[in-house]
Amino acid sequence: MEIDKSTGGYIFDIQGFSVHDGPGCRTLIFLKGCSLRCSWCSNPEGINFFPEPLYNAEKCIYDKLCVSACKKNAIYTDEVGIRFRKEICRDCSTFECVKECCTGAIRKCGYYISAEQLLDKIKRDRQYWGGNGGITLTGGEPLCQPEFAETVLRNCFETLIHTGIETCGNVKWASIESLLDFIEWIFYDIKHLDSDKHKEATSSGNELIIENAVRLAEKFKGRMIFRMPIVSGFNDDIEHIKNMCEFIKETGRREINILPLHRLGREKYKLVGLKFKDEFKIPGKEELLNIKNIFESSGIKCFIGSDTPF
Amino acid sequence: MLKEYNYFGPAPDPEVSDRETRKKPTKRAEFLRDLYFEAKSSTSMEFPYWYTRTWEELDGEIPIIRRAEALKSGFEHLTPVIYPKELIVGGKAIYLRGSFPMPWLSEAFYLASEDKLYKEALESGKLTADTVTTMGQGGGNVTKSAGSVISIAGKFGLRKEELPVLIEISKKWKDKSVDDIGHKYEQMVPDYKDKEEIMRSVICMFDSGYTLPQGREVINYYYPLQWGIDGLIYICEQEINKVAGNPDMDRLYFYRSVILVLTGIKNWILNYSKEAKFLATVEKDEKQKKEYEEIARRLINISSRPPENFHEALQMIWLFHIAVLNEDAISGLSPGRLGQILYPYWKEDIDNKTITKSETLELLECLRVKFTEIDCFASTGVVGGVLSGNTFNNLCLGGLKKDGISAVNELEMLILEAGITCGTPQPTLSILYDEKLDEEFLLKGIECTKTGTGYPAWVNNNVAMEFLLNNYGSEGMQPEEARAWSIGGCLETSPGSWMPLTYKNKLYYIPGGSAPATSVGVHFLSLPKILETVLFNGLDMRTNERVFPSHNLKLENYNELWNTFKDYFTRAVDVLARTNNIQHDAWRKISHSIVNSLLKPDCLEKGRDIGQMGSRYNRTFNVESCGTANLINSLSSLKKNVYEEKNFTIDEFRDAVLNNFGYRTALETGSYSLIDQIPSEKFDKYKRIHKYCLEAPKYGNDDTFVDSILKEWEDWFCGMCSNFKSLYDMPLYACQISVSTHGPMGAVTLATPDGRLCGTTFADASMSAYPGTDKNGPYALFTSATCWNHSLSQNSQMNVKIHPSAVKGREGSRKFLELIRAYLRKGGFHLQFNIVDSRMLKQAQKEPEKYRGLMVRVAGFTQYWVELGKQIQDEVIARTEYEEV
Question: If you placed Cys at B736, which of A37, A119, B499, B766 could pair as Cys (CB 3.0 to 4.6 Å)?
């Protein structure tokens, strides 16, 4: 298929040899921007839709070259150090601050890549995956850039590359539907079945997510595995898990991958200029096994973390 | 993650991932390994005393006979020591981690602190490498003198009362050692002064002729296995009858010297058997008593006859391994494809039920401990700077048989298992990867890799065979014989041969080495340091001495820079190749290889030792490089910043280098890793230029701008080596391993155009990226690394650090194998891993006592963390870690 030269999108990383997000060794493409704001997010640098400066105070020598370099006055200093007015940064295309910074304290996160350039990188990587590998679009929320995602997935699919996505489902149904023929594997995240609770932790209700899940489970012909972060004190109570069992059974799918909350993204919050809310507890091994047992006794295969059969 | 205490030391905090695979050795092997942990590197004068005494007595005798008698005397006078619970006995010297000096190779070093010779030696540039190398401070290294033990070379302990013997004997070798004689004549090379400057600037790490004249090769156990010691003596007697009085009389003396040395070895083995018998008479424990008696019986058998079972064969190859090590200063004498060599014996035993698999495993574990006990006695610069105390006994698995089918067998599975259950640095393991190898075996290799011991290394069978056929075809090598290859030493592709072993009336073709030492010749050229001299008109800016003649060029364009670099590099290779040839010539005339020669095909057939090209293959001299990634990144930076984008001028750059980009030096900070360096008050002035340097395209990211520089370098380097000739009138070839030289060589090099700071360690190996600069994952790194044909070079080396979580579990194992396979399929030659969390390494740096058993892969070898120098520790910590969370 001809690739429309104008198609492209914003990504913030391409990661080869990823082994936990689909079958085989894979290349993960992280699309920038997300429609949810989960308070435990482990990729906070992927939340904003625009390329943005990341700031590492430990490397900063406070020569303030960045402050004077920014013609839009997006950078100021206070008692903590260098600060960015991200609402101004969102329209920046020149990133003078990054160019001026000599210590690597400021770096740019996210960039535009044409679908063609991205496909070249995927073609390179496919030589290294081995038999079962492929690509997985993740993010951020990959379906927030539907045309870009479609072009990439379609091209991969047509050249026999295994295609997968990981989505939070909080997008228009049309964005999902247009891709269905080119996807072989979906991780579908559900955080909470109660919309109010969902809104509390992710600043968005779950109606669209639930609705899409049901439709997708019905229409999608490939393998769809639910994913659920296990956040102690938020969604790990037995009643909620039992409700999840019921919900999953209703969709007709039979697999879930539970991901214990972790804090490995904590350091990145500082870089983005966000505060890490350390309000939840990491579940223990016992608890995870208990949850797994509940799922499995309802006939749903449950995999904990990276302990998957793929 | 394991919380309880384990052999590698505790996990430092709950968030640090421990390695996943964990098994325990048998009680016996654990006991023996604990003995090793308790033992210190110790040296003794027994062998050198008797060697020198006999040598002096035979003044005027034909040199090779004199040498043989001296070796015989040394062997016969070694005090045998057998430790309780040992199943395989014998060692280099009286101590568990014993070794001894060989002043006939070089004596100046031992006289150093006693005699003004030290100063002379320093002035001639020979000991400079020592002064810039730091030895690891822990483990079995005797780093400081204490009580009645004197520390030598920062590693070996010598009993105080033996010091006068060492000094006395060393004095006897003054002006007679290989070092001194070689030095006398190398000065006749017209541009010898250049060589001195090159050594003093540590552009070249060391002379190979007298430091480690043998090694980095594969031993061949065939002859004693086939004929036994008496059989070999008989063969030599028959040959003497044929050659005595006929032309080409050197053969007579060679055969005579072989008989002498074999007699010495025979008596040495019999001395061990007497010791075993004696121990049996005084032993109270019935089981142990019986074991001593069996040891004695085995030793008596193999002192004359070929081995008659697996255990005897194992004991015999072990003693011959030691016998070779005792004739010369050797590192990297590799057992080769041991599982294939010993398979006939083992198969017979297992079929007859005279051995079980668990008994085999126990024996193989004991063998691991024995190999780990081997110490190599040499100077600080060589032992610390090059070897990190390692002896590189590389045991290879896999590959193909003579008939071209997979050579994997059940014994090799057990060798891998012993490598898992009984983690020790030696013998290090390598898998000769071929598409024909069984999946089960490969996944066993993955299980072993995941223990985090660093072995096995994964090397490419096809690439090696192509290299060998290209370079040894002129000596008659055919594809069938190329299959007999193995790794000799750290990562040196070495030729082998198929030897027809008859055992219990059946014929087997077993592989074994059939060439002398590789990695002799031009030993480690520091590529970034040569670039430094190009930028400073031929001067070494650390010492302000002139190394190369001034070029007086303005370096106005990239080609001028690149051509000048090639010119200086060529000069260095040229003069070093010639001076090293002289040293090796002195070596072969004074310190003939007899034990190793009698084992190597076709020395016995030809009647010549390996110094007279008795081996089947002889083109083994090479040119070794160090700091490839830093050179490539530096050229990339200059090309982009100075010549294309004109971000700074070359003069501005020189100023920045002299001021270390405004940072303090590594010597001041005490850390040799780039990430730990501290800016000084001058930083402001140089920060921009440093930024440009750091941001220039870096090798390892699939960036054509810089990868094309790598390709140009590799094609040129691999080609130019053949313009220089070895002592044996054969062209040299390229060898690209850094071993540990990237530490000390980095220490004497100013800041480099890639942004690396003064004194910090270079990138390791040749295909590893500089720590932290490969930002696009392993696939991009692999693509960069395979932009050139690896079979042009004897090797190329890629070390990758992987976080344990990335390869966790059953799926992790399969995916890990895919990763390795992918690189090798693209034509990569070598890949090896450190599966370890950096935080654990940092913890181990702080609390070495808790991590006595922690092992890491450095650059072609595995070593105990606590025995590594700090320069290398810092580099290992800084290497990019592929982490999957």
Answer: B766
A147: Cβ–Cβ under 8 A, 6 or more apart, which residues? A7, A9
> What's the residue count for chain A?
310
CA distance A19 to B884: 7
B521: left (phi over 0), alpha (psi -120 to 50) or beta: left
CA distance, residue A26 to nearest chain B CA (Å): 10
**Average pLDDT score over residue span B18-30:** 82
- Least confident among B208-222, B560-574, B582-596: B208-222
B233 vs B242: CA distance, rounded Å: 14
Angstrom distance (rounded) from CA B166 to CA B143: 19
| Distance (Å) from the alpha carbon of B876 to chain A's nearest alpha carbon | 21
- Distance, in Å, from the CA atom of A251 to the CA atom of A240, rounded to the nearest integer, reads 17
B818/A101 touch (CB, cutoff 8 Å), yes or no: no
DSSP annotation of A3 reads P
- Asked if A18's CB is within 8 angstroms of B779's CB, the reply is no
Name which residue leads in pLDDT, B597 or B118.
B597
Cβ pair A235, A282 in contact under 8 A: no
Encode pLDDT of B201-254 as tens digits: 999 988 877 888 999 999 999 999 999 999 999 999 999 999 999 999 999 999
A73-129 pLDDT, tens per residue?
999 998 778 999 999 999 999 999 999 999 889 999 999 999 999 999 999 999 999
Nearest Cα neighbor of A190 from A246, A267, A262, A146 is A246
Taking 90 as the threshold, does the pLDDT of residue B464 lie above it? yes
B8 — pLDDT class (breaks 50, 70, 90)? very low
pLDDT digits over B254-276, tens only? 999 999 999 999 999 999 999 99
- B490 noted as active-site residue: yes
pLDDT greater than 50 at residue B10 = no
User: How many Cβ atoms sit within 10 Å of the Cβ of residue A298?
Assistant: 16
Of chain B residues 764-783, which have a CB less than 8 A from chain A?
776-780, 782-783
Q: If pLDDT is split at 50, 70 and 90, which confidence band does B115 have? A: low
Residue A134: strand, helix, or coil: strand
Q: Is the pLDDT of residue B112 over 90?
A: no
Q: Which residues, listed in sequence order, are joined to residue B214 by a DSSP beta bridge?
A: B330
**Element of type H or E holding B107:** none
Quick check: B694 contacting A, CB < 8 Å?
yes
3-state DSSP assignment of residue A225: strand
Query: Which among A304, A267, A20, A262 is positioned nearest to B14, based on CA atoms?
Result: A262
Domain boundaries, chain A: 8-47+111-304, 52-107
Residue A117: phi and psi, rounded to 5, are -60, -40
Q: Which CATH architecture has domain A8-47+111-304?
A: Alpha-Beta Barrel (3.20)
Answer whether residue B857 shows pLDDT above 50.
yes
pLDDT(B621) > 90: yes
B682 to chain A, any CB pair closer than 8 A? The answer is no
CA B339 to chain centre: 21
> Would you call B492 a catalytic residue per the annotation?
yes
The mean per-residue pLDDT over the stretch B360-382 comes to: 89
The architecture that CATH gives domain A52-107 is 2-Layer Sandwich (3.30)
Establish whether domains A8-47+111-304 and A52-107 are of one fold.
no
Q: Which residues of A touch B808 (CB under 8 A)?
A: 306-307
Q: What angle is formed at CA B214 by the lines to CA B828 and CA B415, rounded to 5 degrees?
A: 55
Q: How far is CA A26 from CA A15, A125, A133, B90, in A?
A: 8, 8, 5, 51
All residues at 6 or more sequence positions from B618 whose CB lies less than 8 Å from its CB, including other chains: B475, B515, B516, B728, B730
d(CA B25, CA B418): 8
The Cα–Cα gap between A53 and A272 comes to 8
Mean pLDDT, residues B718-736 taken together: 97
